């Protein structure tokens, strides 16, 4: 435990371990300008796409906070490969940086705050005390509202979120910007027609191979459920960067979509804390969230997952336990040179990726512990897996 705090009002000088900062145009910045402010130490590098993507988000928040007169400043701590790249990257930012030549300060900050991945935004309060290490997540989730990052502020934001989720309805979720329709390719569909159904919000984008793969699987499940007249609908929420991507992505989907509006889509993704795509959030007939794990549940149980409720998943789990009794306790699988053992969640089979079909699995599996080789029961045996008649 060596919490990097100073807390004696001397604050920032000690934290930064330098008294020279450079503006984006290369001029010296007086450290006094930073005193008494909440500081974000921004660890990033131009060569990593996640930093490239996060920098404009942070810049937007920075400008807004400045406009509101908030006492916030950011200091860029570069891990660029050379001086020219540093200058190019820093010129895109409106805040000062530790000079690239000051390798010692950059290194000591990286060590002091135990930076393991970039981008990283470390928040120091006006007294020079470390208060948050998850600035990137907080900015992505709350944008300006995250300021000043104090525990009181976090508690307030979480209470806000909770209240929003508690009063959530399908209309509130989908009628962003006052719109009352979603689209079914060329046709408009009133949101009111979806009320009372189980609705999947499908976050996806073009040029995302896992999305493409999951979309085709989801489409066949969707069509099967529709054939059975289940009260189920899916709405595509585009994470595409442009409308062309959205249109192409949507052309491969048999379900509804929100019209292209990247701000509303991003707001929805933030609201559900979508961390990666594809993601399938399931909304129940009462308008409340059933699960954010729609994708995993589809991968595990296919259309049997519907309506995705806890009761249904428990039932499927019990059925899997029952079925597993029909499988031999060891298996020689052609694709692996060792004997595989039948394992359940209780005997070491947690979540896994099936080495045979590449999809997620949970609980029951055939496993070679030594090699980390794990497959679904059904994948070990071909298609059939029925008990012999008793
Ligand atoms: Zn499998
Ligand atoms: Zn093995």
Automatic annotation (TrEMBL):
Gene responsible for this protein: LOC105046862
Cross-referenced InterPro entries: C1-like_sf, DC1, Nucleoredoxin-like, PKC_DAG/PE, Thioredoxin-like_fold, Thioredoxin-like_sf, Thioredoxin_domain, TryX_NRX_thioredoxin_dom
Protein name: protein-disulfide reductase
This protein's UniProt keywords: Metal-binding, NAD, Oxidoreductase, Repeat, Zinc
Reactions catalysed according to its record: [protein]-dithiol + NAD(+) = [protein]-disulfide + NADH + H(+); [protein]-dithiol + NADP(+) = [protein]-disulfide + NADPH + H(+)
CDD domains found in the cross-reference section: TryX_like_TryX_NRX (cd03009)
Listed GO MF terms: metal ion binding; thioredoxin-disulfide reductase (NADPH) activity
PANTHER family: NUCLEOREDOXIN 2-RELATED, THIOREDOXIN
């Amino acid at each position: 435990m060596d919490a990097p705090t100073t807390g004696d009002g001397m604050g920032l000088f000690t934290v930064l371990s330098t008294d020279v900062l450079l503006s984006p145009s290369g001029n010296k910045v007086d450290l006094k300008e930073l005193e008494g402010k909440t500081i974000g130490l921004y660890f990033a590098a131009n060569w990593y796409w996640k930093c490239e993507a996060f920098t404009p988000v942070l810049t937007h928040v920075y400008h807004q906070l400045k406009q509101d007169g908030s006492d916030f400043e950011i200091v860029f701590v570069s891990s660029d490969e050379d001086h020219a790249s540093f200058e190019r990257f820093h010129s895109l930012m409106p805040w000062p940086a530790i000079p690239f030549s000051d390798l010692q300060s950059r290194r000591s900050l990286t060590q002091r705050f135990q930076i393991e991945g970039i981008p990283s935004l470390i928040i120091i309060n006006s007294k020079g005390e470390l208060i948050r290490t998850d600035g990137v997540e907080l900015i992505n989730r709350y944008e300006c509202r995250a300021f000043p990052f104090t525990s009181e502020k976090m508690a307030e934001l979480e209470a806000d979120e909770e209240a929003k989720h508690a009063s959530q309805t399908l209309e509130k979720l989908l009628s962003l910007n006052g719109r009352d329709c979603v689209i079914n390719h060329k046709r408009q569909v009133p949101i009111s027609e979806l009320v009372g159904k189980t609705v999947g919000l499908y976050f996806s984008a073009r040029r995302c191979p896992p999305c493409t793969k999951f979309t085709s699987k989801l489409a066949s499940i969707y069509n099967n459920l529709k054939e059975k007249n289940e009260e189920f609908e899916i709405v595509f929420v585009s994470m595409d960067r442009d409308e062309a991507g959205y249109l192409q992505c949507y052309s491969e989907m048999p379900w509804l979509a929100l019209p292209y509006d990247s701000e509303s889509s991003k707001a929805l993704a933030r609201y559900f804390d979508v961390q990666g795509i594809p993601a399938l959030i399931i909304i129940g007939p009462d308008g409340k969230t059933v699960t954010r794990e729609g994708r995993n549940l589809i991968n595990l149980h296919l259309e049997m997952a519907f309506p995705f409720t806890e009761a249904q998943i428990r039932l499927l789990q019990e059925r899997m336990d029952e079925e597993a009794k029909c499988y031999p306790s060891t298996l020689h699988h052609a694709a692996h040179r060792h004997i595989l053992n039948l394992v359940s969640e209780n005997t070491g089979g947690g979540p896994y990726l099936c080495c045979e079909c590449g999809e997620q699995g949970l609980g029951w599996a055939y496993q070679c512990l030594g090699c980390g080789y794990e497959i679904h029961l059904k994948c070990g045996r071909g298609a059939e897996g029925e008990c012999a008649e008793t």
